[in-house]
């Protein structure tokens, strides 16, 4: 029999934002364990995925013919982007799985697929050994990982949002991005350890870059075992008992406004996120002129700072609502993106670069900390995993996955500042969406369902 853990009653009116109307009951140990396991699995998935970006500087020459460094980075960035283009397919497949058969089943399947992708990269032959087959294997592995993440986001966002109690939902749901960023940070920490303590630069470029992918595959198997014992959410069980259609694009089409809201929120937020994570590593190395080790150190430090911000912003959203944080991100992002990226470009050293990136994260965290929860609160349980995952995956594919490639393209044609304005324009579009949307904390579908409304 499937174990379920429900959300405690949050008061008679689920659409009221007044904390006095919400339950003060402390979150149970069982629910905390479920949130921990769901978050830990999310960390492993993103560690596996971002090992590619973290170690791209070292394995680019293994998969592509010798060219200038920017051309090699564009090749690896191109495959990185292609991995994003299959994420909508993953969102559809795993969203359907999560809405029809349970959040737990979808989460287990996604981490298993990620394991397969990591193992494939770890064992892939080099271009010198296999010729064109080498980058083809790399592409196949990234497509598998892209499918996995396409399902992971919607399933984990839904699971964490449904598992958290209403009074602290922003705080606990923020751990999706704590672990998402933590996965990136873990990849960079491993790179730092290999760079400074275990391997020479030549060893890293020759074979050392395979180590993180082996580690990722093993961690994914551990995460799979942990997720096997996860309880199902009470929201899903209640929706399943109603015997109504669950999941699928046909049901999603009945929520066009919410789908457009997810796309509008995601386009600016995901672009900003990938600018200051994946693209920033290449930007610091190729444009700012930091060394490989300085680039890794600055990236790791800024990710640690960002990770610490997420629960603080999530808890703040529980007190003041979600919309003020989203509007703050989009407004400040529109105003300060060009000045910040320009200042980073002319940073005199790693400390100045870190300080400027930290300022950027004070802005971007207004989106990252709560965006998954906001989307989950828009949809009913019967379509929640699909509703969160599919439109998000489409927006990420177009704006997030291409961020690094577009940035490097602007650099290749000597118009690097044009990229700054492109990012600003996309964030400005998200500002319009945030400005006119209603606050999901006060109109949560999760709370409404738990109270029978």
Strand line-up of the largest beta sheet: 1-2
The main β sheet shows up as: 2 strands, parallel
* Low confidence ranges: 1-25
Got a strand count? 2
The radius of gyration is 21 Å
In terms of DSSP E residues, the strand content is under 5%
Helix content: over 70%
What structural class results from the helix and strand content? Answer: mainly alpha
Distance from N terminus to C terminus (CA atoms, Å) equals 28 Å
Shape: globular
What is the count of helical runs? 21
Topology order in helix (H) and strand (E) letters: EHHHHHHHHHHEHHHHHHHHHHH
Model description:
- The chain is mostly helical and 453 residues long.
- Helices cover 78% and strands 1% of the residues.
- It is built from 21 helices and 2 strands.
- The chain has helices spanning 29-63, 69-85, 87-101, 103-123, 127-130, 133-163, 169-173, 175-198, 201-206, 211-228, 234-241, 249-252, 256-288, 292-320, 323-345, 350-368, 371-376, 384-400, 403-412, 416-436, 445-450, and strands at 4-5, 232-233.
- It has a two-stranded parallel sheet with strand order 1-2.
- The longest helix has 35 residues, at 29-63.
